[in-house]
Amino acid sequence: MYEKEKETIEIGIIGAGGMGRFYAQTFSKAGWKNVNVCDLPEKYESLKKDFEGTPIKVLPDGFHISRRCDWIMYAVEAEYINAVVKQYGPATKIGAIVGGQTSVKKPEIEALEKYLPEDVHIISCHSMHGPGVDPTGQPLIVIKHRATDEKLDLVLKLLSCFKSNIAQLTADEHDRITADTQAVTHAAFLTMGSAWRANAQFPWLLPHFVGGIENVKVNVALRIYSNKWHVYAGLAIMNPIAKVQITQYAKCVADLFKLMIQEKEEEFRARIKKAGEFVFGGLQKDHVPILLDDRILDEFSLSKIPKEKKQPNSHLSLLAMVDCWHQLGLNPYEHMVCQTPLFRMWMGITEYLFRNASMLDEAINAALYRKEIRPDDMEFVTCARGWAESVSLGSMEGYQKRFEETADFFRDQFAESTIVGNRMISMISKNISQ
């Protein structure tokens, strides 16, 4: 299939980080003969060694990619997209197709419009997962911004080798949906990690962090912290919609905690019930749960504590998430076209909690009356506000410092949690595709 194009089309990737390498290797394995990559000029020699013995060609810099290639992808951090396109964009080959892989499309599209020649086509994309995830069946967003249908067809041919579910959106639609799905999801898991670190806790050693839902929380939080900080910082800080939502999440966490410590049960229950009905009340009876069963998730545990010794948890992070969606008037099910593996798991455990009456009641009672877990919940409130402030201030440096301090605390556990997390993602993906 596409044998002529595979022999003649020159593919160029500017930026050889995780996603840049992932794209290059995927194209090469699929039989595209002319795959070219570059990174910073000072990394040229080391990059050549990395790809030595492979069909992938390493070029000195973005000028060589721009002058040579028919399809060019900027796989650089969102923070630097403007500067990199400004440097290399004007040299782009006539008639080439150019796009980016950043998680925030507004600044990317603005840079491409500003610095690319008018005889260049703009079609961007975004694989909604990290480089360590099998792309099969995962969402892949394509944004035809300035291009002919013929050029779009070529891009779709190129990307077909990922075997992903391709959805076409505008840049604005993409940024709105990623804010609705990814930004707050990341903030919740980042907050969990920061709170555990602040309390000097490894959650898998504590009885109220035992069980299926807790396994998802722990494994996903560690998965995020095992990645590079800028992956999450760019999406949160450079997307103005995301800032609003992360701030709202922190507010919901604090509002619920205030009701908890005052033991205002009637008001607390009413607020949770109203939020739950808003998000989950419209689901049909034949709705297939994202998670098959809480018990299935037991096998993905890092804990050695027997499940029978499990103690109730408030699940403040999940209660606040549903409350946040309600306060913002968001229906997360409308955005499943752009579901990332992490969002899918986040939705899965949230849905499971709220659609299991006894489990939800146990969480509410724990939130209101289990004073021994109050210190954990208090730290969660503090850390949620801390992350929201970092994002609101637009502080990349503050975000990086907060992220890396927590990552260092959990670093020894990353290898095992990555293996367990991949198995968990695979299991949930199979459930959804059935």
Automatic annotation (TrEMBL):
Q: Which SUPFAM superfamilies match?
A: 6-phosphogluconate dehydrogenase C-terminal domain-like, NAD(P)-binding Rossmann-fold domains
Q: Which InterPro entries match?
A: 6-PGluconate_DH-like_C_sf, NAD(P)-bd_dom_sf, P5C_Rdtase_cat_N, Preph/Arog_dehydrog, Prephen_DH, Prephenate_DH_fun
Where in this chain does the record put each Prephenate/arogenate dehydrogenase domain? 9-290
Pathway involvement of the protein, from the record = Amino-acid biosynthesis; L-tyrosine biosynthesis; (4-hydroxyphenyl)pyruvate from prephenate (NADP(+) route): step 1/1
MF (Gene Ontology): NAD+ binding; prephenate dehydrogenase (NAD+) activity; prephenate dehydrogenase (NADP+) activity
Which top-level enzyme class is recorded in the Swiss-Prot or TrEMBL entry?
oxidoreductase
The reply to whether Oxidoreductase figures as a keyword in the UniProt entry is: yes
| GO terms classed as biological process | tyrosine biosynthetic process
PROSITE patterns for this protein: PDH_ADH
UniProt protein name: Prephenate dehydrogenase [NADP(+)]
